[in-house]
Amino acid sequence: MNTENSNSKVFFQLDPEELTNITLDKNEGQITDSGSLAINTGEFTGRSPKDRFIVKDELTEDKVDWGEINMPFSTEDYLQLKQEVLNYLEDKDVFKRFAYAGALEEYRLNLEVITEHPWSNLFAYNMFLRPDKAELDSFKKDWTVIDAPGFLADPGKHNTRQSNFAVISFKDKTVLIGGTGYTGEIKKGIFSALNFILPVEHHVLPMHCSANVGKDDDTAIFFGLSGTGKTTLSADPSRKLIGDDEHGWTPDDRIFNFEGGCYAKVINLDKESEPDIFNAIKKGSLLENVIIHDGKVDFADTSITQNTRVSYPIHHINNIQKPSVGENPKNIFFLTADAFGVLPPVSKLTSNQAAYHFISGYTSKIAGTEAGIVDPVPSFSACFGAPFMPLHPAVYAEMLSEKIDKSGANVWLINTGWTGGAYGVGSRIKLKYTRAMVNAILDGELDPKYSYEKYHIHSVFGVAQPRSCPGVPDKVLSPRATWDDDKAYYTAAFKLSNAFRKNFEKFEAEANEDIRRSGPQRFDF
Description:
Layout: E1 10-12, H1 16-25, E2 29-31, E3 37-39, E4 52-55, E5 71-73, H2 75-89, E6 94-101, E7 109-115, H3 118-127, H4 133-137, E8 143-148, H5 155-158, E9 165-169, E10 174-178, H6 184-202, E11 205-213, E12 219-223, H7 230-234, E13 240-243, E14 246-249, E15 255-257, E16 261-265, H8 275-280, E17 286-288, E18 291-293, E19 296-298, E20 309-313, E21 325-326, E22 329-336, E23 346-349, H9 351-360, E24 362-365, E25 377-380, H10 393-407, E26 410-415, E27 418-419, E28 427-428, H11 431-442, E29 455-457, E30 464-466, H12 474-477, H13 486-504, H14 513-516
Parallel strand pairs: 1-6, 3-17, 4-5, 4-9, 7-8, 8-10, 12-22, 22-26
Antiparallel strand pairs: 2-3, 6-7, 9-10, 11-12, 11-13, 11-14, 14-15, 15-21, 16-20, 17-20, 18-19, 23-26, 24-25, 27-28, 29-30
């Protein structure tokens, strides 16, 4: 965008206070009792994966895994759409900033972010890394993000699905967003770009994970989809936070954060159970789609959406790693929120099981999250982040397997979902128990080597579940023992195992026999 030649007024590199004040002046937000800014993103309160496109050209045609997730967009349609978005912004005040993604300079992506709303620019300030004044003087952009929520596409004219869109052009090095005010599209657009650039150009594995590091420089990474606990479990007062969502694993075995902030879910946020996130919500933070009464946020009120969020710069967390880089990981956690209540709350995976579960990327949807959902529904997202992965999942899985074998990292499956029955019958596994399990692993109190005395092999899922764990009742460790009805438990367990196997059919051609054999048992009802 050639903003210098437009008729609009360009507000450049404003700080959080200035962006907050303009938002208030425009009557687009309000201040809470914590000093944070609260806004409403409008019609869209989450990403719209069916409206994300990648321009199909000579750079992407033979590399992108085209399909329902990575939908092609023609160069001609993209150029027309981009020009119309720029024309739309010509007579409007816009907010522009320079930022970058990638805590390691050799893999850094310099960004120009142009937004229609001041609060969207505050989000970019919070979530991307912030150059200092010296860096600004010599800043040269690599990629541009253009965010215009007020521009509505015409599907018949622009060949979009509906009026909202997020289009990524690797040739033009641009993320073009319109028709939606949900700020997560900004960060996930750049994440998607990095998920193509880093493996193809640098042999860096991009990961949808959080990461932290202990006092002995032992790095832990936490893979997981939204709502599984990535942000919560990585925000540990006894360990330094590297980042909460997007990281790279380099050829020389360093883990680095892509971002400069955190984007946390705040549904039912409680100061006692999640103090780091609660205390990070202060002046400069941006709350989205929460309900406020007399300046006080009601975190339990989901009348707008269950996907209530807050973004804040990483320095709002007290205990952080500077810079946001860690050494070779010692422990890798796959997080899932199993609403069927049948997976063990903690289990040790073999390397082949790790590959199977990484390719599967399981969690579950529960009643109320989407129209028509009454019972729990299994949800699979390859590599725990399929909507952001332009390449075939096997590319990322092979890279991860290589790195696990080389590093000797231990891989664990953590179920942060239900116990004692499915959603609606059982209860969510207590966070204090999940933390105790993770801490026992990080402190070396759970032996990663299998033995019959210490582990039980689950009869359906084949994973090794520990028989005991400090701070956790033995009964909690066995999902079957928490149910009142053995038959009902195994019926639910086999129902989920069959869903795993059905989902994995589309990956079998790319997976070797050892990985294929590492899935759960099948049962024909």
